[in-house]
Amino acid sequence: MTRFLLVFAAFIAALPLPVPAQAQVIIAHRGASGDRPEHTLAAYELAIEQGADYIEPDLVPTKDGVLVARHENEISDTTDVADHPEFADRRTTKTIDGVEVTGWFTEDFTLAELKTLRAKERLPAIRPANTAYDGQFQIPTLAEIIALARAKEAATGRLVGLYPEIKHGSYFDALGLAPVDALLATLKGAGYTADDPVYIQSFEPTALTQVMFRGREMGVDYRRVQLLSEEGGPADAPQLSYAQFLSDPGLAQIARYASAIGVEATLLVAADGTTTDLAARAKAAGLDVHAWTARAENAFLPAPLQSGADPAANGNFATLWALLGRAGADAIFTDNVAEAIAARAALRN
User: Fold this and answer.
1) What is the pTM of this model?
2) pLDDT tens-digit profile of 12-41?
3) What are its E.C. numbers (predicted)?
């Protein structure tokens, strides 16, 4: 074992220390996507049944302006669109947020056309069990996801939070599809108020300021979350880097239009297992801290938390959860809701 692993192992061994209670909020990342193909009603329903506090749909618009849940607007990895000869001529190359992408895009399909497609597992090598569900589920609309959440609330008496992400907001604005307007109209039309468990997230500050100002004009002031990663910067402000946002002045600026930051887990827990000061600095600026994404499989875990050599096998998820809580995360995105429920329970005992 290398010195690094020895240090990390010693750190983990000392884990039975108090973990902040706020670290217990569970956000089902694209639904229970460790157990069902992501962004399907089946994934969201299972996540709710497993006990998630929030369900998270990534939202992109159709050609006719309807918001649907997909990881990206390019859908060849998440649907069977390539098997539909009637759509062969829709395959094209576009530049999305400065990156050239080839495939099929939601904005080139009406909702009726998208409904003829079926979802498939995006990570078949890591989640082969999920491929058993390939071809079974449609692409859901935001309205359908809300209807599911409302039905589950009525059946269980438990609130189901919504945590939608606006994907590529400036790109879609340039196409005249206005995803922020569509999102706000859908949420308000479904009866959601600022007092309900709703967070709206985006990597683009423009989208979040649109949510703030347009929402207030509509009489709804939903909570907003600025997403940040370890590298790069927002597509709508290429002159800025996420590192600038993560500085103390940057965090103070975020606090003017958002109530929380959603950060890559590596920004909270360093490679050697030690925690950073980001959460403390963010909270000093008045921001909550949400972390993404806790996944159970070895492929997504740091080496000391892996179990064996199989990337698809589960590693030490509970320790990852505890580390993020100790680092100051108020909420954690996860693909593995059942495992998160167990980890939360273990920390409370």
Assistant:
1) 0.93
2) 444 444 444 444 899 999 999 999 999 999
3) 3.1.4.46
